[in-house]
């Protein structure tokens, strides 16, 4: 049986400590946050440092808390007055400065007050975990190990667990389970080596990129163009990422590596220009300047880039690499990397600096990673997972190597006289040419080459971790078109998966959902359905390009048909004879949000950025979104009116909230906030681990079948507020225009939204049907489509990805 962890303490209220406590609050786990007492402080001021840390976490951007109210779960204190409270805690996390003696002195005090069996871990990234606990009691050492969170803890999924020779495996198992299920972390087991796994590989990669940049005389902008999304790394690439993290933080990690690591690339070091930046306190975003800084110019605020040779800033330039421009047209990262490296059959481009740079840095990254086994990790799996979850790489080093082709790259490396790792020769000696391969019977859906045994082994995953991609390998795809697939999940449950670009909702997806849920359709043999996918975002909304084309051709019958089809799709979801569970995550905007609003049941991920954003392109929600917000407002007003008194006040408040949500295009910053905005229900269970939502959604669908699910009946008795509330909302719009907060066109949009939400200019309390509200919505949508300024907004957004205020 796993140890219960119901209360935690975080010792150290710096950037990491405070945000770790915040994320425990996100998981509903109360915590203490302690730090030192300021000199000569008295009374409440003795907690000043911890309180300041918590306050910084409350104000941090991106937000550390799912909702500001969750900060109440964090109680501040100090190391002198409050350590005795640690006796209440099941898990104590040390996160003070990286000073061995300071840590040991504090932990000696902790040892005297902690309850036996309580877990005690360190968030150190630089000190040997076993050395910190030398000489402590047996119970302390058995429950002592490393828990290395990555910053910011809410968003970075990686949690490295580092045991010592004395650590009780059951203690680590308890933290691994809580980290996975309640904190949403991806758990990686590391060894007690300097910088563990993520920072060891990541630091080498950064230092090597900087070295090659200098040797090839490339600019900061050049390198960021080459080391971003082109190779499946974050858009912030190399130097923008360093600015975000802080040059001092990277300097500290590198310093620890230089002091404690001796390997074949120990020659790598921070260059002189970087040291000068540290001396000048050019630390990145925290000091308003690093490799980039914002500066006011003739065209407004612009981002300036640093010339590393002169340490002077200049307007950021756009790098011009012909190979990179060609690669941008390639959809998938594996094919893009092959093309950039000249491994796609076309050969390297003559004088192609982009290909030369990437060939050098990637082959040296692959070699370095391969040589770290078994030093920092027993298998390739931990290294790949650490880089995906700790650095947001699309693929880890070995996965990227497979994508480029191990045989082809090693052949070229040998031809050029580059060293080839012994572990690669073991792969070839075993008759294998890939680090990973499919393994449909495995829970993970794939196997990896185990260097120690020379055989493929299943990639291990925890129970409940699943994906649509793995489900396809284990079961089958029933039906597929360009935008969506119907996948058999087993046990009578089908999954409707979106896979269009950005999961935008076009005709293919509408057709797949509608036909699947229709009696006698391709999903007729299923008992229930789940709607979700494996992409980074659930859906960014409707495909407005097709809409714009129809509007510009004045094909109004076509526009009307598009809206009706979308409304029919959301109605099919809501009124399906079989239960439908929608599992949203990430960006769930516009039409994606409307799908969630119509879902009979939802299984949301914690990181849910959900909103009806149509006003940004001059429209209103046309797929039933306005109708559903009206129903919610009516029901909310009914709930808060138990004795029939003051109807107009409650009704007004409910509709004002719904109107502001749509008219201001509010988007939730978490699933918790999505509940407050009315996009998901207050009793919906939020899943913290993104990799678990498919499993949980399927379980919910099966449960609904067992409970004898009965679909709702379309409502015909919706008591709309009509002219009374409508007049008040329009007055608010007028006042906003008088204050010059909105444009004339936004007045039109706002008034149209108000009209649709209130059921039109009818007598208050008039009973209308859902279909009546849909018809109003459709007509409002079409009328806005005919506005020139709406068409300008759509065109601008399609071109720039940004909204236009006109």
Automatic annotation (TrEMBL):
EC category name: oxidoreductase
Keyword annotations of the record: NAD, Oxidoreductase
Domain 3-hydroxyacyl-CoA dehydrogenase NAD binding: 7-192
Domain of life the protein comes from: Bacteria
Gene Ontology process terms (BP): fatty acid metabolic process
Domain annotation 3-hydroxyacyl-CoA dehydrogenase C-terminal: ranges: 196-293, 366-414
EC number: 1.1.1.35
Domain Enoyl-CoA hydratase/isomerase: 500-626
Transmembrane helix recorded as keyword: no
Ranges annotated as spanning the membrane: none
Reaction equation(s) it catalyzes: a (3S)-3-hydroxyacyl-CoA + NAD(+) = a 3-oxoacyl-CoA + NADH + H(+)
Gene Ontology molecular function: (3S)-3-hydroxyacyl-CoA dehydrogenase (NAD+) activity; NAD+ binding
Listed PANTHER family: 3-HYDROXYACYL-COA DEHYDROGENASE FAMILY PROTEIN, 3-HYDROXYACYL-COA DEHYDROGENASE-RELATED
Protein name: 3-hydroxyacyl-CoA dehydrogenase
């Amino acid at each position: 049986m796993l140890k219960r962890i119901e209360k935690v303490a975080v010792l150290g209220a710096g950037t990491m400590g405070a945000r770790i406590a915040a994320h425990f609050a996100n998981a509903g786990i109360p915590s203490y946050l302690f730090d030192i007492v300021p000199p000569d402080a008295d009374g409440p001021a003795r907690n000043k440092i911890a309180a300041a840390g918590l306050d910084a976490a409350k104000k941090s951007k991106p937000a550390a808390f799912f909702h500001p109210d969750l900060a109440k779960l964090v109680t501040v204190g100090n190391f002198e007055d409050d350590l005795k409270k640690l006796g209440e805690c099941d898990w104590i996390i040390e996160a003070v400065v990286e000073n061995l003696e300071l840590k040991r002195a504090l932990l000696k005090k902790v040892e005297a007050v902690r309850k036996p069996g309580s877990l005690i871990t360190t968030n150190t990234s630089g000190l040997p975990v076993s050395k910190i606990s030398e000489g402590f009691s047996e119970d302390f050492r058995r429950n002592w190990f490393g828990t290395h969170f990555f910053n910011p803890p809410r968003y970075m999924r990686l949690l490295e667990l580092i045991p010592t020779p004395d650590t009780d495996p059951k203690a680590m198992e308890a933290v691994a389970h809580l980290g996975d299920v309640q904190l949403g972390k991806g758990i990686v087991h590391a060894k007690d080596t300097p910088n563990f796994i993520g920072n060891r590989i990541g630091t080498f990669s950064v230092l090597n990129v900087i070295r090659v940049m200098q040797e090839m005389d490339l600019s900061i902008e050049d390198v960021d163009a080459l080391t971003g999304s082109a190779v499946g790394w974050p858009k912030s690439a190399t130097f923008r990422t360093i600015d975000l993290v802080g040059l001092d933080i990277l300097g500290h990690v590198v310093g620890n590596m230089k002091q404690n690591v001796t390997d074949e690339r120990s020659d790598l070091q921070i260059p002189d220009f970087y040291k000068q930046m540290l001396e000048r306190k050019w630390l990145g975003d925290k000091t308003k300047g690093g490799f980039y800084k914002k500066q006011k110019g003739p065209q407004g605020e612009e981002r300036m880039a640093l010339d590393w040779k002169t340490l002077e800033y200049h307007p950021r330039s756009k790098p011009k690499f012909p190979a990179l421009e060609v690669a941008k047209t390639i959809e998938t990262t594996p094919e893009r990397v092959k093309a950039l490296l000249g491994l796609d059959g076309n050969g390297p481009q003559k004088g192609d600096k982009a290909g030369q740079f990437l060939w050098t840095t990637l082959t040296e990254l692959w070699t370095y990673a391969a040589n770290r086994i078994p030093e920092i990790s027993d298998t390739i799996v931990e290294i790949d997972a650490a880089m995906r979850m700790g650095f947001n790489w699309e693929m880890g080093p070995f996965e990227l190597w497979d994508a480029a082709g191990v045989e082809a790259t090693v052949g070229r490396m040998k031809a050029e006289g580059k060293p080839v790792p012994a572990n690669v020769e073991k792969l070839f000696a075993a008759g294998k040419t890939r680090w990973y391969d499919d393994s449909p019977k495995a829970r993970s859906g794939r196997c990896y080459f185990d260097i120690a045994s020379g055989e493929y082994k299943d990639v291990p995953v925890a129970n409940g971790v699943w994906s649509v991609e793995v489900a396809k390998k284990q079961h089958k795809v029933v039906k597929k078109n360009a935008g969506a697939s119907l996948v058999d999940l087993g046990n009578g449950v089908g999954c409707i998966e979106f896979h269009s670009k950005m999961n935008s909702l076009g005709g293919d997806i509408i057709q797949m959902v509608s036909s699947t849920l229709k009696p006698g359709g391709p999903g007729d043999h299923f008992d229930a359905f789940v709607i979700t996918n494996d992409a980074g975002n659930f859906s960014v909304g409707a495909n407005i390009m097709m809409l714009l084309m129809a509007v510009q051709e004045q094909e109004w019958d076509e526009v009307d048909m598009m809206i009706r089809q979308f409304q029919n799709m959301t109605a099919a979801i809501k009124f399906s004879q079989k239960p439908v569970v929608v599992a949203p995550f990430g960006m769930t905007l516009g039409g994606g949000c409307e799908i969630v609003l119509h879902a009979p049941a939802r299984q949301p991920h914690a990181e849910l950025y959900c909103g009806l954003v149509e006003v940004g392109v001059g429209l209103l929600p046309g797929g039933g979104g306005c109708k559903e917000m009206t129903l919610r407002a009516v029901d909310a007003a009914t709930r808060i009116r138990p004795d029939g008194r003051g109807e107009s006040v409650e009704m007004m408040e409910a509709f004002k909230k719904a109107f502001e949500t749509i008219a201001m295009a509010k988007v939730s910053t978490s699933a918790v906030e999505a509940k407050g905005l009315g996009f998901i229900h207050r009793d919906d269970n939020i899943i913290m681990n993104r990799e678990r939502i498919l499993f949980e959604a399927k379980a919910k669908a099966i449960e609904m079948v067992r409970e004898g699910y009965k679909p709702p009946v379309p409502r015909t008795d919706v008591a709309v507020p009509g002219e009374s509330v409508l007049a008040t909302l329009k007055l608010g719009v007028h006042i906003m225009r008088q204050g010059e907060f909105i444009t004339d066109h936004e007045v039109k949009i706002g008034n149209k939204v108000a009209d649709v939400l209130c059921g039109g200019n009818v007598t208050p309390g008039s009973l209308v049907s859902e279909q009546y509200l849909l018809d109003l919505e459709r007509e409002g949508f079409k009328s806005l489509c005919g506005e020139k300024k709406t068409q300008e907004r759509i065109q601008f957004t399609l071109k720039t990805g940004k909204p236009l205020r006109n």
